[in-house]
């Protein structure tokens, strides 16, 4: 149902830059540098960025193996390891995309509540804004059915992204120079610091990776391998400079007392805060669609009539029902458990560490192990073992945090 091998690498690169510089970065100073501070945080950010760039670069090289082209990540795993890994990969991707979208709904809902707070001393509950966000996302997903159909929206998204980032940096820097009494200490006991630090590393992984490189690569013009890598170079230069800078500037400006959502810390005139939250909300509409597109594609392939046009009456009705059901579930989950930081940590630990680091090295060992040098095989086995252990440890830490928050906060909390 989608369009393949049609998009220039510049379009995919722009999509990566804008979609990773999304409203999630407003959580990063708190959930990344808050538990790690400067000493552990900055080296961890550099380390994860390097391995993220390398692993994505490596995976892009397996778009075609033995003259067979793969348009989905799970198809590569099926080819290399059989059906069991096909289903495991698809489950991990589904969990990733679903939780990412839940986090987007939360971030956008908090931004809308921030606007309401500027005009009212008793703003509406967060859940009302989550319902509005879910409805807007649903309409966009219904009208823009495929990843390639996003091309006309990317330019507008880039302008919106650039504008709200400039506003954020200007206000944060102003606040940083105005406030001299800042602290950068890490809170909690020794065990808490270790567990929170592992969760923060998982969040760094989520900040750099999508878990859907193969699906994006399927839309890139040939030669797909070279062009996808060009798009990745854009993400890990221009893109990463922006979202890492926001993380560092936000933590520098507000220290360890930064709130969970950076927009809540900003000073400045009312109009600037309203404009900022409005732009942040609008930017998430395009970003969330990129991350949720593989679920839409899978659902469309399964339930739409493939012998009819994507815009036939039957397929429009089916797509309406599929999108409505998905966003209803997503919005309900966000309303019941409004803990965006935990969602981000869970995304990184459960799904993105295996999808980003472990699986590409496993594919290398399987496909090229017999012809590769011994040092290459040892290198990739080391990656598999190290990041598998990290995934288990970070997942345990994140679940521990979720259990703690579930005890502290009630469901449908109005944060």
TrEMBL record:
**Ranges that cross the membrane:** 12-33, 45-65, 86-112, 124-144, 153-173, 193-211, 232-254, 274-299, 320-340, 346-365, 377-399
Among its keywords, does the record have Transport? yes
Name its cellular compartments: Membrane
Print the keywords alphabetically.
Answer: Amino-acid transport, Membrane, Transmembrane, Transmembrane helix, Transport
One GO BP annotation of this record = amino acid transport
Span of domain Amino acid transporter transmembrane: 9-397
Q: Which InterPro entries match?
A: AA_transpt_TM (IPR013057)
Q: Which GO terms describe its cellular component?
A: membrane
Q: Which region is the signal sequence?
A: none
What broad class describes the main subcellular location of this protein? membrane
Say if the entry is tagged with keyword Membrane.
yes
- Which protein, by its recorded name, is this? Amino acid transporter transmembrane domain-containing protein
Query: From which organism does this entry originate?
Result: Kingdonia uniflora
Q: What is the lineage of its organism?
A: Eukaryota, Viridiplantae, Streptophyta, Embryophyta, Tracheophyta
């Amino acid at each position: 149902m989608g369009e393949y091998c049609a998009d220039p690498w510049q379009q995919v690169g722009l999509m990566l830059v804008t979609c990773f510089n999304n409203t999630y970065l407003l959580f990063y100073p708190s959930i990344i540098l808050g538990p790690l501070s400067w000493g552990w945080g900055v080296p961890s950010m550099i380390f994860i960025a390097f391995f993220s760039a390398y692993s994505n670069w490596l995976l892009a090289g397996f778009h075609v193996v033995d003259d067979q082209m793969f348009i989905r990540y799970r198809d590569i795993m099926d080819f290399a390891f059989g059906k069991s890994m096909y289903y495991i990969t698809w489950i991990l991707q589904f969990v990733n995309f679903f939780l990412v979208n839940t986090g987007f709904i939360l971030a956008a809902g908090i931004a809308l509540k921030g606007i309401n707070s500027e005009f009212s001393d008793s703003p509406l509950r967060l859940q009302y804004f989550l319902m509005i966000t879910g409805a807007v996302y649903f309409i966009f997903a219904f009208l823009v059915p495929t990843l390639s159909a996003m091309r006309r929206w990317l330019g507008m998204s880039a302008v919106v992204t650039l504008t709200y980032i400039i506003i954020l940096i200007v206000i944060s820097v102003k606040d940083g120079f105005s406030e001299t009494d800042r602290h950068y200490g890490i809170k909690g006991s020794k065990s808490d610091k270790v567990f929170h630090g592992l969760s923060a590393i998982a969040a760094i992984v989520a900040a750099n990776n999508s878990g859907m490189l193969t699906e994006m690569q399927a839309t890139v013009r040939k030669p797909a391998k070279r062009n996808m890598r060009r798009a990745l170079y854009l993400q890990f230069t221009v893109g990463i400079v922006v979202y890492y800078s926001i993380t560092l500037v936000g933590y520098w400006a507000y220290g360890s007392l930064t709130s969970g959502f950076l927009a809540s810390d900003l000073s400045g005139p009312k109009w600037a805060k309203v404009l900022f939250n409005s732009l942040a909300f609008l930017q998430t509409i395009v970003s969330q669609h990129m991350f949720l597109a593989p679920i839409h594609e899978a659902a469309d392939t399964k339930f739409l009539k493939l012998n009819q046009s994507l815009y036939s009456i039957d397929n429009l009705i089916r797509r309406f029902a599929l999108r409505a059901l998905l966003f209803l579930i997503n919005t309900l989950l966000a309303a019941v458990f409004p803990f965006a930081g935990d969602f981000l940590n869970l995304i990184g630990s459960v799904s993105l560490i295996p999808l980003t680091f472990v699986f590409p090295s496993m594919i290398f060992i399987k496909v090229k192990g017999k012809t590769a040098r011994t040092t290459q095989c040892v290198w990739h086995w080391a990656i598999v073992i190290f990041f598998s252990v990290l995934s288990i440890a970070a997942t345990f830490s994140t679940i521990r945090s979720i259990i703690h928050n579930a005890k502290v906060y009630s469901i449908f909390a109005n944060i």
